[in-house]
Each structure stands twice: as structure tokens, then as C-alpha cells.
Amino acid sequence: MSESTNQDQASKGEVHLVHLYPRQMSIYGDLGNTRAMAARLRWHGYTPVVHDHHPGAQWPEQAHLVLGGGGQDSGQVRVQEDLDAQADRLRELANDGVPMLMICGMYQLMGKAFITVEGKRLPGLGILDVTTQGNATRMIGPVVLETEFGTVVGYENHSGSTVLGEGQAAFGKVLHGNGNNPEDGDEGARTNNVIGSYLHGPILPANPALADSLLEIAAIRATGSWLPNEIDDSIATQAHQRQVTRLTDR
Amino acid sequence: MDLLTQVRTSAAIAVGKAARTASRLRGGGSALPGLVTEKVDPRILAHTLGELAHGVVVVSGTNGKTTTTKMLVAVLRAHGLSVFTNPTGSNFTRGVISSMLGEVGLSGRLKADVAVVELDEAHSLKFAQVVKPTHSLLLNVARDQLDRFAEIDHTAQLLASLAEQTHGSVVLNADDAFIARIADVVQPGVGIEWFAVDPEIADQLPAIQEDDVRFSDPADAPTLGPAAGLLHPHDAKSFTIRYPGGSNVGPLELRQRGLAAMINSTAATTMARVLLDERFVPATAQMALERVNPPFGRGEVIDAGGCPLELVLVKNPAGFTVALGTYGNEPVASMVAINDNYADGRDVSWLYDVSFESLRSRGVALTSGVRAYDMALRLQYDDVQVDRVEPDLDEALDSFLAAHQGEPTRIFCTYTAMMHLRRRLSTKFDLARFGEDPENE
Fold it and tell me: Into how many domains does chain A fold?
């Protein structure tokens, strides 16, 4: 579609995306988030540069947006060592305002700690003030949220029950589904431009307003400005609105 | 069976048979008679299946169960065995009992030499709690319905546990790291046989196989003995199932297209050899395989008013990727129908783990189903042109066929969308219904 509209014009600049552990931590289609961001950057006239960051690899020289997905427990174990090695860098980038979107397993690892079913406490990066308790039962199903980016739709599938620390902002309020846990109606967490969420879907193609909000911050960091093109999101809007209506009668 | 057990079994079967008659009259579902029978005698399956001369074979894994079961049954029947099997879709112990009710006397004796049952990973374990399988044929582990099984590692664990409870032989896929590792857990004395693809085409495998990220090193390749079945393709259609110890099957061609069907036939044939031992006749197996029709909706070709319509079931990334690989180089007018009911998998995220670039040259005429717009959106991100989005399946099918009269067509669909479309197509074109397979047309 809009891909070709700007082919003849000069690129508005390179924007570097880093996808953390695509092999181990992207089991529910979360790679779709990275694909969607790369495509939308092209549609907006920018040049996306995607860095797949694998465990043990060197960190790329530039990172304007960092994405991470959900994995299995075994996948989380496999990335732990590299995540420890990158911890200071990721905390620094987060403090500096780099936008990050961390889904499910990576959301949990961004938190203060994960407490296993057996009661063992595994420390996280502490970028988000959240603590996750391992559970025997899973929270599975479609989700609708109210967020500052408008309604957000997605699909949750997690056994961890997450609780926000005092003063920690949620990503959204649950209109349908569980969210962080079955009790408090919060979903995800947000600090600076770091968003953690349980929502697959994948979340970015299903919610273009959220996608473009993150791209705006990334593009400004990369090029000094955000000059978006008009994108025809009518299909995405239909898909999105149908889920909202179906699940919440809105 | 002691007398009391016998009475209970007979009572259960009588009740079940009555329910079966009643539900047939109503035209109702197939699981209810099994349910009431199971209520009266929870161990009914152990009583009826436990005494078969050639044992009980369970076929499980993520992809290809239905096709493989059908092929294995065909090969065994061609060798003169009387085979009990569960029809497609009755993928539960109750479904197995329901199908048994038609073939069993009140004594509980089943007139069969062997039972071959297709069960999904979770139900195969429930089944094994009642009937210990003599043989298990384990195909593959892939992402499928994670909303039910939660994690691939968990799915692999279910199959390992099935293998542990098998007391005769297991036949395993040497190319699937999850399945290959199961060899480590089978009981001492239980036979292990392998099937695999020829190294020549091994480069086609990564796209259809999951990475096992549980271990940092790749699994040690299992040692394939003289009775291992090796798929050796000659071209897109013709292949030989090679046995290093002799008695190859083929060259042959299947009615179902694609690499996945060839792999399934290699799995089925290798299990048949294990079961039949010296009675196995390669030429008989070949003839049987060549006559197997694709199961409904699995690459089935429907005569839609004089033009072929291919109905292709897609239910997970590996399956969709294989289907696109199989059909991608012969582009025809295509429709994609995605539902998100429980049987389809309620999470549609998996569509983003499939690459749709092979549809780019021809585009997609229509997307349909409950998640029609999500599918169109997915295609948009792969730069595949979509002409129309119509969530209503009937409306979509009618206008798709009307717009492409006189040319071949293809529909990729999830399970409940396939069932719906298949029903409408069978009314429209007077096709055989589910359960009536014109096996030897």
C-alpha cells in the first residue's frame, strides 16, 4: 500500500530498532511487532534498521526503540545471562527516555522480581516497579484496555500474577480480560517511555495509535523530528473496533 | 473379565447403544453416546480394547495426525487386518467410545485385530490412563493452540509421558528434536524405531520445524538402524520410502499433495512394518497408500461445478507455512478464512509467525471468518493485495465462487471455518458428507 508513495523522495532518516532475543522470546507472534514497526517506518518515509539481538551478541551502536516478546520458561532461562550483561545499558537507555515495548516474559524480566511457584525469588532488571508471582493457573483470553493511547486490544496467556509497586503507573485499565492479575484491574506498567504489557495479538499491528506513538518518540530521538505520512489504517481500525465491540459492547 | 465387570460393561454398552440410536434419530453430536457409556463403566475402553491381538496404537503429535492415521489404517487393512479406528474429529476418549459402540456386541468384545486411534497430546494421556497403548507413533511438536496447551515444552512433556506408558514399541520422528529426545524416556525393553527425511531435502525442514530452545546444543542425531524409514523424494510428487535393511516402498505418488503428506506416509508405513513384521509386503503398502484420499479439508480437492476447489486446513504456523510452500508455486484465486473459536485456537497472534510473501504475486481475493479483518491486516503487512473483506462465511464463499467461475480456486481455513464451508459446499455441489468417505472411488 503506502510503501511506494515515498520511494522517490529522500528518506527522512534511519531509525534503529532492537529486537531482544527473537529466537527465545517470541513465541506468540511478537516478532509481528517488529515487522509492523519496520513497515510503518517505511510507510512514514523513514528507513528502518532492525537489529536482532541474540544472547552473547554485541549490542548495536544505535538503539532508538527496543522491543521484546514472550517466551517459554526455558527461553527465559536461556537469555538470563545475556540480560544480566545488558542490564546496566538497558537501565541507562530507559532512564534516558528510549521507548521500549516489553511483552509478557520480557515484561516480567523488566520488573523487580519474579517469585516462582516454589517461592524462589529471581531478581529482574528493576526498570519497572512490578513484582510477579508464579501461579498454578493461567490467565488466558482476549483483552481490551483503556489506555492513554485509546482502547488497546490483544490476547493474554500467562501464569504470572503481577502487582504494581506503590506509585508505579499501569499501562492501562482492563475493560475485558484479566490483565496483570485477576484482582485489581490494572494491565501492564509504564515508566518514562518503557511499556510492559501481557498483550500479544501482536499488540502493535492491532493498535496502530500505540505503534505510531512509540515511533514518534523513536524518530525524534533518531532524526530530531517526526514527520509522519498519512497511512490508510482502515483495515486495522476495523479489526480493532470489531474486537472492542465484540468484547465490551462499546 | 470377571462376571461383575462383564455385567457392568454390558450395561454400559447397552445404555450407549440406546443413546447412539437416539442421537442418530435426532441427527445430534457424536460424543454423547460415549459420554453415557463412560459414566456407567469408566473402564470400558480397557475392557474392549485391552484384548486385541495386535494391540492398541496411538497416533499423536501436533500436525498430520488425521492423515497419518488414515494412511496407517489403510496399509493395515490392505494386509488383511481388521482395524478399529476413531473417525476424524472425535479426538477424545468419548469419541473413541462412541465410534466403538457401532462395532461391539454387548459382550464387550470388539471384532478387530488392532485399534489405531488418533488423539491429541492432552487426550492421548487421558486415554493412556485407561488403556496402556502397545504402540505409539509420535509425529512432531509445534506451536498449536497454545491457549490450551500453554507451552510447547509442556506439549513435548505430554508426548514423552505417553511414550513412557507404551509397552510394545514407539515410532519416533528423528528430525524433530522434541520427539527425538523422547527416546531417552521409553521403558527398558520397549522397541524404538525411527522415521526421517533423506538428508538431501533436510534443508527444507527448518521452516516447518520448531526450535527446541530448552538445550543449548542441538540434539545428538539418533542412530538410524536398518528398519528406519527414510523419505526419499524424486520430485514434487513421486517418492520412495527407503529402508536401509531392504524392502523399500515405492516409487509412489499420493493423492494428497506436499512434503508433509510424504512425511506422514513414511511415518505410517514405518509403524505398519513394526506391527506387521514379517507379514509386511511393500507392494501392498504402496497400493494402499496410493488409494488414500486426503481427509476432508486437508488438501481435499472438491469438484466445484467442474472446477477444482482445494480446501486447505491451516491451524498453526508450521501447518500454514507447509501449506503455502506446497501450493505457493501454483498460484490460483485464493480465499483465507480465519475463525477464533476454541477449536481454532482463540489467539490469532500466530498468523504473524507465518510469511505470506508467496501470495504476493497473485494476491488474495477475499478474507473471511470472525477474524477476517485481522487476516487482511496481516496480509497488508506482507504487501499482499486483498480485494475484499467479508466476515460472513456463506456470503464470502458465494461471491468468491461466483467471481471465479470456470477457474481453479483455493481456500485456506481454520478448523471451524473449514467445517462450516465444507457443509455449505457439500450442499451446493452434492458432495459426500463427513463420515462417508468414498475410500476406493
Answer: 1
